[in-house]
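REQUEST
  id: r-88c1
  op: predict_structure
  target: 2-isopropylmalate synthase
  payload:
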Amino acid sequence: MTTQNNETNQKAQQAGQESSSFKRVRIFDTTLRDGEQAPGATLHPEQKIVIAKQLAMLGVDVIEPGFPISSPGDFMAVQRISQEIHGVEICGFARSVKEDIDSAIRATEAAERRRLHMFLSSSDIHLDFQLRKSRQQVIDIARSMVAYAKQFVERIEFSPMDATRTGDEFLFEIIEAAIEEGATIINIPDTVGYAMPEEYGAMFTRVMNHVRGGKQVEYSAHCHNDLGLAVANSLAAIRAGVTQVEVTVNGVGERAGNCSLEELVMAIETRKGALGVETGIRTEHIYATSQMVSRAMSFPIAFNKPIVGRNAFQHEAGIHQDGLLKNRNTYEIMDPEKLGVPRSMIILGKHSGRHAIKHRVSQFGVELTSEQMESLYVQFKELADRQKVVQDHQLLELIGHTVNEVLEPYTLVQAQVLTGTEGHRMSSCIIKDNRLGKELVCSGTGDGAVEALVAGIKQALPLDVQFTDLELYSLSSGEQANGEAIVTVSVEGNHYRGVSVHQDVLMAVAQAFMAACNQAIREHQINEAAQDAFSSEDVEITIP
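RESPONSE
  id: r-88c1
  status: 200
  body:
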């Protein structure tokens, strides 16, 4: 036993030594400032506060909550986040203008730790056409505004905007001026996403080596994604010695967006050994944070978005499915469950093979003979050829046909909704309890058609089901377009998801809700049966 303990302690010490050998890269989150500048992404102050709390839970090092001078609402949001969020550095954002600086200083004065982030254009195209000032005038502004801000806050981050299109000579000069006046962090932004990775990394190296005082300050990277290189450029900056990277959740931001938090963090986490760095991000909160930002901004996440996209950890090809069922590492380099991503590894479609279908059938607790399995496979392929994906409730229906039994606990037989321009919407539903063979007629009301439908269906169900999320997608164009509904429900803290496709969007929602509820009910019935079996066992008690 002692030998085992010693071995365990040695392994723990080795793990600690390995961890300490990695340099820490600070994650500066600007979702609530630069991310919100994306057209249509505007957030209410209360939404910003909720997201800021989630970002703190995620483990970001710095939060840039907004642009205080831009509106009373933004000022209030930054002020409240400074007051309410602890354990995270809060950054006030400002142009190199006294009024902006004053506003940012006031908004962040209650923060436990704070900094001021001020920016000033540096490229000739910005100076000539936007600022309409000479280089010397810009240098003078940089000096005077950094010196002014230094009276109020110690940590000052200075950004020469459009740095990657600024020549070295002037870039060195303006950075030197900012450092001489008290800037402690130099951010070199690729404002228009123009740089190539090798160029961007080399730029930091040149600044560190040639600017007076350049080795006494911290460096930050801020990359935009216009050429799809924001993450690659940020990694190049890290290799050059940058210790902070500015990111946004889901990569939201101006134009094509910013460096994606989840992509950068997981690139570092997955290739930590190659990069020699680590972050303090709690990866298990990544997916929830991504979903929260997507919903708050009403920005859907692309299906093929790395890390958090719907297809990021799903597989339809039979060869991939076979490999994954044998060993997940065959086709996945990350564990989605460690990111908080709901596990739905196998997607059944026309490319799926027998192995994947047999695996899913076994998950339903159904045993099929080889003849029944072959019959099911033929039916499955016929259905899969007609539609893109075969959902669980459809597979259960096919299995039911094969074994001549209804497997779903409840079936939505009919649903109607009375809607209009005014007043409550009303629904009428017929739901069949397949165990008892009885049909139940239910009705519901709500401010919207979906609310009325859900209220009606809930009346027939034996569990307290909470409707937690709805995603709607158009799968084609024109008047006969199909809509796909993805509904998530929760029961006693557990989440279940149903998917349905229908030309009538409301029917798609109703069927998806019913499918999710049936998942919950099936699991509840299985647990009850297991508990009953356990309770009915004869337990022999021996009294010594």
